[in-house]
Specification:
Helices cover 67% and strands 0% of the residues. It has 2 helices and no strands. The radius of gyration is 47 Å and the shape is rod-shaped.
């Protein structure tokens, strides 16, 4: 038996000549263009789907965020403001009970000028 070495695809491509190379090149360009076009379309569709799903998620998060803010406003902020308002009115009414006294007849003591003398101090090492 005689065993013949089979040619690899690379060796077969190197041995193509003339019209065979034109056929190979045109077939490759047709398949490559179609494949590239298909991959580009699939990528675009995938991006659009991802954007639309993210858009729905962002809208849901936005609605949820404002719903939480509204609940906090109703159950936390309004009672807090009412309590503060009540305390302010209570303090104001307590202040009105204090009799108003004029303190204009009181005078501050006269401020005397103070002279400061600095005494030189020397330190000696022992």
């Amino acid at each position: 038996f005689f065993f013949f070495k089979q040619k690899t695809a690379y060796e077969m491509l190197r041995s193509l000549v003339g019209s065979e190379m034109c056929i190979r090149d045109s077939m490759q360009s047709i398949y490559i263009k179609q494949t590239f076009r298909y991959l580009t379309e699939q990528f675009t569709v995938g991006l659009e789907n991802e954007y639309n799903s993210n858009k729905a998620q962002r809208l849901g998060l936005w609605i949820g965020f404002y719903l939480v803010l509204f609940i906090l406003y109703i159950f936390v902020w309004i009672p807090l403001v009412q309590r503060l308002n009540k305390n302010i009115w209570r303090t104001k009414s307590m202040l009105t009970m204090i009799p108003s006294v004029s303190y204009t007849h009181l005078t501050l003591p006269t401020i005397y000028s103070v002279q400061i003398s600095v005494v030189a101090v020397s330190l000696k090492k022992k």
